[in-house]
Design a protein that fits this description.
The protein has 539 residues and is of the alpha+beta class. The protein is built from 21 helices and 21 strands.
Length: 539
């Protein structure tokens, strides 16, 4: 027991000392709150340590019978300390911090490709427009088999190892060897890393003559500007109603979400407020400059919509500004600030809660230190039938709140949609589920697109490309391909699930040729939640 407690005490003292000296808020103007928080943190630190931990650390360093790797102990124990607080406070080691930040910062330095690992090989799925690889003539379908004159294939190749090799500092070099279909020799390229944009608005397009669809995958540094660009483009095409798809959006920067909501709310309407022990209440209010204050809006959410996604949906719902469609959201209503340490590691510490305009706390219940139950919540919802039946969700009557128009909404975790749409399993079969779970539908689609790339690239719109694909016998080809991999053909199941297979095959193949601009319009044709949104907006 003493051995277990000792490193915890030591690392806790170190952690508190670092927090006192290095606490700051990332991407928000909360200077006064930070001073108050730093003051309370310092007082808390003095009360907790009372000099004993400092003395203990000195005692160990001077008198312990052998040398101890204190840095290693700290790295191991800090995550355990934070795990005792809440599910979202987290430690980010120095080796991971840059990659974690890149995902939300809107850009990183790299070679400009999207990749997928298949058969222990890095397959280039797409080449970023204007990026270093496009300028050198590297193509979708190429395989990266060498990096810096060393073989780069095999079972040890992971997404993490690929990113570490291909990303780096601006204007640095990386050599890659490319295997291209139809070319005997390995093609050698010396690539100079450049800034690569990270888009968070995946696609925007007109789904009907009046209704525009915008898919937002996360809330990053450039999301609001991307969103404005999408709105402007859709307006030029006659859009006056919007579907904002936040399904599977895990959140991100609060200010990106509030700026987006501001486009739809009249002046002085509350968007969200945050409050914590050392973080006094701060309201985010619409400033009246929004360009879509009179446009109709439907917001799509599901069980993986979290944090900033729930802020957006909650603001629209509580202000009776639009309609929320889908399934109950994740339930992440805790605010984290990032505290950087001198060694380039960081802690993301929970400092406050989010509240929707009606006063609802979005955060679902959790037990401190019990991460397993929290992580299993989505699976428990699935087993309980929540994805299939709206009445399987039991609302807490003691947590009733009122929207600005007097409608009853509930707190206690997540945003419950105004219109529930169950997942559609009517065409599912065991054969279909197996092909999906093994990743064979995606793998076959990539192989088909790669093999027929010259032919498929003749089609410049998703409508023309799908018209061609519908003339091909994709399902039978895929079944024969999968049979060679050990999945026995099942004619009855294939026929029953044919619409699902056909839709996915066309969508994946179009993504390989046309990107997300081809993928989402095809996928949404059979999407019940999108269809319901269109129906509601057309009423």
């Amino acid at each position: 027991m003493k051995k277990a407690i000792l490193p915890i005490l030591i690392s806790l003292a170190l952690c508190i000392g670092l927090l006192i000296g290095n606490f700051y808020a990332k991407r928000a103007d909360y200077a006064q709150q930070q001073q108050e928080m730093a003051k309370s943190t310092s007082i808390f630190g003095k009360r907790l340590t009372n000099g004993k931990l400092d003395a203990l650390m000195t005692l160990i360093q001077n008198n312990y019978y052998e040398n101890v790797d204190m840095d290693s102990i700290v790295e191991d124990v800090i995550p355990e300390i934070l795990a005792q607080l809440d599910p979202h406070s987290a430690y980010i080691p120095a080796k991971d911090l840059q990659m974690v930040n890149d995902d939300l910062e809107g850009s990183f330095y790299g070679i400009g490709v999207q990749f997928n690992i298949q058969n222990d090989t890095v397959m280039i799925v797409a080449v970023i427009n204007g990026g270093p690889c496009e300028k050198l003539g590297i193509l979708p379908g190429d395989r990266i088999v060498e990096v810096n004159d060393s073989s780069f294939v095999g079972k040890n190749i992971t997404n993490e190892t690929v990113l570490k090799k291909l990303r780096g500092k601006l204007n640095t070099h990386v050599k890659v060897g490319i295997k291209r279909n139809g070319v005997k020799d390995i093609l050698k390229y010396d690539i100079v890393r450049d800034e690569i944009p990270v888009n968070s608005v995946d696609v925007s397009y007109m789904i009907t003559p009046e209704i525009g669809y915008i898919k937002v995958s996360k809330f990053g540094a450039t999301t609001y500007n991307e969103f404005l660009t999408a709105l402007t483009s859709l307006k030029k095409k006659g859009c006056n109603k919007y579907i904002i798809d936040l399904r599977s959006n895990p959140g991100g920067y609060l200010e990106a979400a509030t700026a987006m909501v501001n486009e739809f709310l009249p002046k002085n309407q509350l968007i969200v407020y945050t409050e914590g022990k050392a973080f006094r209440r701060q309201n985010e209010v619409a400033d009246g400059t929004g360009t879509c204050q009179n446009a109709q809006i439907a917001v799509l959410i599901d069980e993986w919509s979290a944090s900033a996604s729930e802020i957006f949906a909650g603001a629209i719902q509580d202000n009776d500004r639009g309609i929320i469609i889908g399934r109950r959201s994740f339930g992440k209503g805790l605010v984290q600030n990032q505290i950087n340490f001198p060694d380039s590691s960081a802690v993301r510490l929970t400092i406050a809660r989010y509240f929707t305009p009606s006063g609802r706390c979005i955060q679902k219940p959790f037990e401190r230190g019990n991460a397993e139950d929290y992580e299993n919540d989505i699976m428990n919802r699935y087993l309980h039938g929540e994805f299939d039946q709206a009445d399987s969700i039991k609302q807490n009557d003691s947590l009733q709140y009122k929207t600005i128009g007097g409608r009853t909404v509930y707190g206690g975790g997540g945003i419950m949609p105004d219109i529930f749409v169950a997942r559609d399993t009517s065409l599912n079969t065991a054969y279909y589920n197996k092909m999906i779970n093994l990743g064979y539908v995606y793998q076959f689609s990539f192989a088909y697109a790669d093999r027929n790339r010259k032919t498929l690239q003749q089609y410049k719109t998703w409508q023309d490309l799908t018209a061609y694909l519908q003339q091909q016998n994709l399902l039978d080809e895929m079944a024969a391909w999968a049979e060679k991999k050990g999945v026995k053909r099942n004619p009855y199941s294939m026929e029953k699930s044919r619409p699902l297979f056909q839709n996915l095959l066309e969508a994946y193949i179009c993504r390989d040729i046309l990107g997300d601009n081809g993928f989402y319009p095809i996928l949404n044709q059979n999407d019940l939640t999108v269809k319901r949104a269109v129906e509601e907006l057309e009423k």
